[in-house]
Amino acid sequence: MMTKTIYDNPDHELLRDQVARFLAREVEPHAAAWEDTGMVPRDVLRRMGQAGLLGIAFEGAYGGGDADALTNLVFAEALSQSTFAGFIITVLVHTDMAGPHLHHAGNAAQKAKYLGKVTAGEMITAVGITEPGAGSDVAGIRTTARKEGNEWVLNGTKMFITNGVHADLYFIAAKTGTARHDMTMFIVEKGTPGFSVGRALRKTGWLSSDTAELILDNVRIPEENLLGEQGKGFYSVMKNFQTERIALGAMAIGHCTQALQLTLDYVRQRQAFGGTLWDKQAIRQRISMLDARVRAARQFMYHCAWSVTQGHDIVQEVSMLKALTGELVNEVVQTCQQFHGGMGFIRETAIERLWRDARVLAIGGGATEVMLEEVAKRY
Asked: Best label site of 80, 170, 206, 327, fewest CB within 10 Å?
């Protein structure tokens, strides 16, 4: 159901094929076990790095692919053809949510020290913005950083941090002044004294990803670990949200595509009331309309990525995309699960997993209600 777009080129098809082969070989046969252990094995991520799949949008000088937003979207959508969203989000946090902070704001010394290892999968990244009292309201964070001599001292708590348990490198947002938007990004390495995992969090979905509460208790880092400009971290976060939200849109569209294909296969062979479920007009029409809406949303998603390559301000459009796809994927997977009947409620089935995994896509990365307000205030 991945129809061609006007933005496709031969390199995009090669990338889709490469990712599909990796998923078929390294992920789909093994990821059920990762759902039990709660993490993606690091050797799998290193093999992704060796294949050139963990730094597609990063600089070639550090092993990246120098790709534009369209190519990066092709990667995210291809990755999202996996039926294991915990694996998908582990990678996309690294490539599209955490890593871009270093890519966009890192200085030459920081990139030389870290970016090559990030691209190779030798260092896995996480981004610490959300807190117990501050989610979509980024400016509401309470974590602080104060300067003492040639060090910064960080104190606070971060919550719902994907890759939080097992990451090697964290990009942490902290207040550095009293103004509401006065925050700064910092680089914190795993093992820094005072920096710890408060607890690993048990989730409804995304079971093969690790999610954590992080504690910063008088964490001292050298002044060279300040990432970007002091006091401008809020704007860095807002900039990177555009990449993140397009990636989450790709994840949602990928789930829709997989759910619809699984359901088409199922209803064509499931016998009931003297025929297949596909013989029922209501089911045929419901699936057809859902597919039409998914295809329309997918074209809008590609248009958003193309607009990024043209340098357009598309905060409103990307906010629309995030709201639209976050709601659409939940409607699609729930309908598809319904058409699977009792089997759709059984663990270990792909449609049940997609149903659980899709729920957070209307919450994380900007809840639907917050996204719609971002849309409305730009009219």
From this structure: 327
